[in-house]
Write a structure and sequence with these properties.
This protein has about 550 residues and is an alpha/beta fold. It has twelve helices and 27 strands. The structure holds adenosine-5'-triphosphate and magnesium ion. It is found in: Cytoplasm.
């Protein structure tokens, strides 16, 4: 297990259960697993489950397996298998031993299905989909027994073998557990445990044309791996009956200290979709630029946006683990990264909407070099060199011809301080045909580098800037919420709630040193926000920065 430092050990109802189980001697060590289905990229909801499962293993000196729950070959893909491993590692966790696949157990699962048939506890059913639905009954009405329920063990064994050999068509029949068609839990009304799929599997190739269902596979995979606490989200609460039923009826697993399932509530985040299927729709409909688009709530998207593993773990810690349904405010995740970056991110200057400043009394055509701190409160982070000269860029929003005293930036005829540099005064300006300011002509006070004007003039405003001759052109990608409604999943079509302004691209300039900005490494661009160089599109020739978070909470 990799070590995750400086994080307080959380307490929650699952850890209480584990403490009890260790105290009573039911278990002597803890074994968990994280079981993603490789049908998409992991999202922040999975991070909650990862931090819970791997975090428990770490804190109890136990083990956590990474197991691909790969029983739906049509929807799965080897690319997802790879991205999921990358994401788990990037979050700071490592699994115990080899990667597992439910498909590793297809032979055993098949054997256990045969065991159930032999015990008269499973049968091959030929009802079609519609008949099966009819026979199942409803929440108010019990179901009816399938006419195939009392087929003899010998015949069922022969039929199941024929299923395996590909002698039936897809959907023609299925293997069902013989439980209780009148159970108040729908999942107990003779659930299908094996179905026919003539599909190529990314791990087992064309070996199988029958595939086990999730409920049958999951509990047995857990039991084979000696999982002690099988943690999943609340929608599997009813399925726990089936989880227990299967294991209780298999000789290898019917022991008191076998795996148990515990459910916790899933993470829901405001303004975010949290389902691989729906995220996949965003990707395939080109509403975002791939799974790792920085607007996506995927781990890969958050990473590209500039979130750090520590900030995501901190978020998972803050939201906690309970059984309560919840909708977490977007500001909670932002706060985690903002607090971290405020502490650690080096400062830099970038101008997102540049206009020119010409300092008419600047004596030289060649720029001078001045030193600026990397962080205002951390001298140990050192300093950086900035060029200062006759021509600079400032942000268009930082100049006005006239303004009241609340506008603490550059105003015609008034003074403002350039961050890390001198005090300047706006003398006159030029604009284009549409009235947009293009150039502000200024004078500077060369006695004000790092000190106040000597005659006691008060200069309140401070603005950022970049020297023109050394400035690097840069693209800035400003991200807003992807959806206009806090609960986009409640809408039938995504088009109704997609925010058409979720990405705004600005072409501006950055201080020269940023040409060496490493991808994913955060900077605070002073007065603008936290940014990082894009891990796909940024290069020395074409700098591209992603806005991670603005300086202040925009949700408030
Ligand atoms: P999705 O709907 O996004 O596909 P899933 O539950 O089908 O989610 P899996 O790949 O089966 O995705 O999930 C792996 C693990 O992650 C499961 O144990 C699941 O309970 C957990 N998980 C998935 N989504 C969330 C969430 N929003 N909050 C907490 N845990 C989650
Ligand atoms: Mg799933």
């Amino acid at each position: 297990m990799s070590q995750v430092d400086n994080e307080v050990r959380p307490s929650n109802f699952i850890r209480n259960i584990i403490d009890e189980d260790l105290k009573s001697g039911k278990h002597t060590s803890v074994q968990t697993r994280f079981p993603p289905e490789p049908n998409g990229f992991l999202h922040i909801g999975h991070a909650k489950s990862i931090c819970l499962n791997f975090g428990i293993a770490q804190d109890y000196q136990g083990q956590c397996n990474l197991r691909f729950d790969d029983t739906n070959p049509e929807k799965e893909d080897i690319d997802y298998v790879h991205s999921i491993q990358d994401d788990v590692r990037w979050l700071g966790f490592d699994w115990s031993g080899e990667i597992r696949y439910s498909s590793n157990y297809f032979d055993q699962l098949h054997q256990y299905a045969v065991e159930l048939i032999t015990k008269g506890l499973a049968y091959v059913c030929f009802l079609n989909a519609e008949e099966t639905r009819e026979y199942r009954g409803t929440l108010k009405e019990p179901g009816k027994n399938s006419p195939y329920r009392d087929t003899s063990v010998e015949e069922n064994l022969a039929l199941f073998e024929k299923m395996r050999l590909g002698e039936f068509k897809e959907g023609e029949c299925a293997l069902r557990a013989k439980i209780d068609m009148a159970s108040p839990f729908m999942c107990m009304r003779d659930p299908v445990i094996y179905r026919i799929r003539f599909a190529h599997h990314h791990q087992t190739g064309d070996k199988w044309c029958i595939y086990p269902m999730y409920d049958f596979t999951h509990c047995i995979s857990d039991a084979i791996e000696n999982i002690t606490h099988s943690l999943c989200t609340l929608e599997f609460q009813d399925n726990r009956r089936l989880y227990d039923w299967v294991l209780d009826h298999l000789d290898d697993f019917n022991q008191p200290n076998r795996t148990r399932q515990y459910e916790f509530s899933r993470l829901n985040l405001e303004y975010t979709l949290m389902s691989k299927r729906k995220l996949n729709d965003l990707v395939t409909n080109n509403l975002v630029n791939g799974w790792d688009d920085p607007r996506m709530p995927t781990i890969a998207g958050l990473r590209r946006r500039g979130y750090t593993p520590a900030s995501i773990r901190e978020f998972c810690q803050r939201i906690g683990v309970t059984k309560q349904e919840n909708l977490i405010e977007g500001g909670v995740l932002d706060a985690c990264i903002r607090e971290e970056l405020n502490e650690n991110a080096p400062r830099a200057m970038a101008v997102l909407r540049p206009i020119k400043v010409v300092i008419e009394n600047y004596p030289s055509a060649t720029p001078e070099t001045i030193n600026a701190p990397m962080h205002p409160n951390k001298p140990e982070m050192g300093t950086r060199e900035l060029a200062f000269g006759k021509e600079l860029f400032i942000d268009a929003e930082d100049f006005r011809e006239s303004a009241n005293k609340h506008f603490k930036r550059l105003v015609l005829g008034k003074e403002v301080r350039l961050r890390n540099a001198y005090v300047i005064k706006a003398e006159r300006f030029e604009h284009d045909d549409e009235g947009n300011v293009t150039t502000v002509y200024c004078t500077y006070d060369n006695e004000t580098l790092g000190k106040n004007p000597s005659d006691g003039r008060k200069v309140k405003g401070v603005i950022h800037w970049v020297e023109a001759s050394t400035a690097k052109p840069a693209e800035f990608r400003i991200y807003n919420r992807l959806f206009t409604d806090a609960t986009p999943a409640a809408f039938d079509t995504i088009d109704e709630v997609i925010n058409s302004e979720s990405l705004v691209v600005l072409q501006g300039v950055a201080e020269a040193g940023l040409v060496n900005a490493e991808a994913e490494k955060a900077y605070q661009f002073e007065r603008e926000g936290y940014f990082c160089a894009d891990n796909k599109d940024s290069s020395k020739e074409h700098l591209v920065f992603n806005l991670t978070v603005p300086l202040r909470d925009s949700f408030a």
